[in-house]
Amino acid sequence: MLQGKVALITGASRGIGRAIALEFARQGAKVAVNYAGSEAKAKEVVDEIYRLGGEALAIQADVSNTEAVEQMVKEVIDRYGRVDILVNNAGITRDNLLMRMKEEEWDDVININLKGVFNCTKAVTRPMLKQRYGRIINIASVVGVMGNPGQANYVAAKAGVIGLTKTAAKELASRSITVNAIAPGFIATDMTDRLNEEIRTEMLKQIPLARFGNPEDIANMVAFLASDAASYITGQTIHVDGGMVM
Amino acid sequence: MADVLERVTKIIVDRLGVEESQVTLEASFKDDLGADSLDVVELVMELEDEFDMEISDEEAEKIVTVGDAVNYIKSRM
What we know:
The complex is a heterodimer. Chain A is built from nine helices and seven strands; from the N terminus they run βαβαβαβαβααβαααβ. In chain A, strand 2, helix 2 and strand 3 form a beta-alpha-beta unit. In chain A, helix 1 (15-26) runs parallel beside helix 2 and helix 1 (15-26) packs across helix 9. Chain A has helices spanning 15-26, 39-51, 66-80, 103-131, 143-146, 152-172, 190-193, 197-205, 215-226, and strands at residues 6-9, 30-35, 55-60, 85-88, 134-139, 177-184, 237-240. A seven-stranded parallel beta sheet of chain A has the order 3-2-1-4-5-6-7, with helices on both faces. The longest helix of chain A is centred in the middle third of the chain and has 29 residues, at 103-131. The mean pLDDT of chain A is 95. By secondary structure, chain B is mostly helical. Chain B contains four helices and no strands. Chain B has helices at residues 2-16, 37-51, 57-62, 66-76. In chain B, helix 1 crosses helix 2 and helix 1 (2-16) packs across helix 4 (66-76). Chain B is globular, with a radius of gyration of 11 Å. Chain B starts with a helix and ends with a helix. The chains are: A alpha/beta, B mainly alpha. The interface between A and B is small, with 7 and 4 residues. Chain B: Carrier of the growing fatty acid chain in fatty acid biosynthesis. Chain B: GO terms for molecular function: acyl binding; acyl carrier activity. Chain B: It comes from Anoxybacteroides tepidamans. Chain B: Residues 2-77 form the Carrier domain. Chain B: InterPro entries: ACP (IPR003231), ACP-like_sf (IPR036736), PP-bd_ACP (IPR009081), Ppantetheine_attach_site (IPR006162).
């Protein structure tokens, strides 16, 4: 479904980003695997993609750094000549109760999870405008819609991503560029393994399908939104959350 | 230097679908030539390619009329 398309996926060395990278490769896309610190893990993803018969490269960049992001997009274009799909997936958590949250914990999460999406979206807009084609898919979160104790910074960033998605969708729609968000529920990854037991237990009670999701559950939806089958969908936030929010 | 105006005019005519006669130095992209904000951004991108130069966001914001674009390009050549 993504044959010949060029995709840039941020935070693709692990978890949901890794699953998206592999699914894209299976569907025929060339994949730029962005990572911040996990070089070895990113290279493993690239190797795995080559084993699948695909094409990929690993690119280090901190998405909160505007210049690094511009350089990253340039590298993708130098290598593959275009960029059709951007998946803003990179994200971190620094959980703490609002009362205890340090300024640094707030800033780190906003800078990577929200400003990072802005940086990457802005950087790909120019090539996508020229191509008159683009798919931008932002990984938000169900908590950005419903709130979550202990995650004021993360929730604010994810809610911000949903608003950014709608605005970018409106600005770019006339050029056949669609922008959508996915709100994953509780997905089993390294990041969610670090959440405390109280939050995990509480969340499981709220999931009608009574299980945590897999990274592949998200990757399937991202691949659909990135495909031509989804060309009439823009500005939406699609929940993939086992029914947590209805 | 007429060459700059000719090249700029051609890009504007292609991009905005206006008549060549409408493209005067005084013509405002938005008010007279029917461009929206995104059209102007794209025009600037095409001018950058045509004249092989980078136009910063700050400079691009000052380009309101065809004359602004021509003068800016000439000043950089």
